[in-house]
């Protein structure tokens, strides 16, 4: 007589194994950016931001911040970062985060990332001067994402290169602007938040982070599922 209990356990184990394999195959990633509205200058567009301190600070490198403003060899960044609202749209809507001059987000947005376990962010205070309204805004943080993965499949992605003669393997010489990103799923691994090496303006998040942020009701963040392929 067959061992029914053993058969059942084997079946459960096989089901879980198949489910895990399916999850591996269908893991999704999303590109996250700010929603850029048309500049109608009617108060509905997001406010613009200028950097007013740490002139030679390197951002969006995927590594810890290095400031070359007062030391040609570089030194660790010491905040706060001072910024200024663009006078032309200082009355615009303050967004959840600015993408320029760096990733600068509200404190609440950072808390939402920490809530789901994101721990690869170097955080510094930001002071935003609103000269038009004689106001100082201190509800924002500089978020420096630690982690940069070379995963873009450039011959399948749509992009523009700032210097056509540049060495494409040198990220500081070959500056790419990727409009439609395709990534190699084998190179991504299981990271929740990281920058794309080939264009560090591309911020990718895992599906679980995407679902978490969507549940928070943000309306000014643009999410786009990233196409994936498998390179041999």
Description:
This protein has one domain (27-229). The protein is globular, with a radius of gyration of 21 Å. It contains four helices and 18 strands. The chain has a six-stranded mixed sheet with strand order 2-6-9-10-8-7. It has a five-stranded mixed sheet with strand order 11-15-16-1-17. The chain has a three-stranded antiparallel sheet with strand order 3-4-5, with no helix packed on it. It has helices spanning 4-25, 107-115, 185-188, 207-215; strands at 29-34, 49-51, 57-58, 66-67, 75-76, 81-85, 97-98, 104-106, 121-130, 135-145, 148-149, 158-161, 176-180, 182-184, 193-196, 199-206, 221-225, 227-229.
- Give me the Rg, rounded: 21 Å
Average pLDDT metric: 86
SSE class: alpha+beta
- Major β-sheet strand ordering: 2-6-9-10-8-7
What features would you highlight for this structure?
232 residues, single chain, globular, five-stranded mixed beta sheet, six-stranded mixed beta sheet, alpha+beta, 4 helices
Which SSEs are present, and which pair or pack?
Layout: H1 4-25, E1 29-34, E2 49-51, E3 57-58, E4 66-67, E5 75-76, E6 81-85, E7 97-98, E8 104-106, H2 107-115, E9 121-130, E10 135-145, E11 148-149, E12 158-161, E13 176-180, E14 182-184, H3 185-188, E15 193-196, E16 199-206, H4 207-215, E17 221-225, E18 227-229
Parallel strand pairs: 6-9, 11-15, 14-18
Antiparallel strand pairs: 1-16, 1-17, 2-6, 3-4, 4-5, 7-8, 8-10, 9-10, 12-13, 15-16
């Amino acid at each position: 007589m067959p061992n029914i209990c053993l058969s059942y356990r084997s079946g459960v184990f096989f089901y879980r194994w198949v489910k895990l394999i399916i999850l591996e195959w269908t893991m999704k990633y999303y590109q996250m950016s700010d929603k850029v509205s048309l500049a109608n200058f009617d108060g509905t567009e997001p406010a613009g931001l200028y950097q007013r301190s740490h002139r030679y600070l390197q951002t969006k490198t995927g590594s810890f911040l290095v400031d070359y403003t007062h030391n040609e060899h570089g030194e660790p960044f010491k905040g706060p970062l001072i910024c200024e609202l663009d006078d032309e749209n200082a009355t615009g809507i303050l967004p959840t985060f600015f993408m320029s001059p760096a990733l600068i987000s509200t404190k609440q947005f950072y808390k939402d990332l920490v809530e789901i376990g994101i721990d690869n962010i170097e955080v510094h205070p930001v002071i935003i001067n609103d000269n038009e309204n004689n106001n100082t805004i201190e509800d924002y943080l500089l978020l420096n994402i630690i982690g940069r993965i070379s995963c873009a499949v450039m011959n399948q992605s749509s992009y523009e290169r700032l210097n056509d003669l540049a060495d494409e393997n040198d990220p500081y010489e070959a500056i790419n602007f990727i409009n439609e990103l395709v990534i190699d799923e084998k190179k991504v691994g299981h990271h929740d938040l990281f920058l794309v090496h080939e264009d560090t303006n591309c911020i990718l998040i895992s599906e679980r982070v995407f679902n978490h942020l969507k549940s928070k009701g943000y309306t000014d963040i643009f999410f786009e599922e990233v196409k994936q392929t498998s390179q041999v």
